[in-house]
Structure formats: structure tokens, C-alpha cells
Amino acid sequence: MVYGYARVSAEHQDLEVQIEELQRYGVDELFHEKMSGKNINDRTEFKRLLEVV
Question: What is the pTM of this model?
């Protein structure tokens, strides 16, 4: 199983390029969010990914 994580820091930024690259790589399960990287406790999708792996 291949997992992927895409993130941008602001709502106005676009995740699409990252998502497309991860899909091209063959990611089976993709987590993504628009959230600042400053505080890991606020990054719910990242925490979900860590729980899975």
C-alpha cells in the first residue's frame, strides 16, 4: 500500500498539482489538506495518515 500526503498552507493555494503527481506515482490512499504547517496539532489529515501508517 502506498500512502500520499499533499498540503498547502493557505485556502487560496491549489493542491491539484501535488495530487496529480501523487496519483501518477500510484498512491493508493491520499490524504490532503489546506492547513499551515506551523502547528502539527492542527493538521488533522496528517495525523490521520500517521495513525494509518
Answer: 0.87
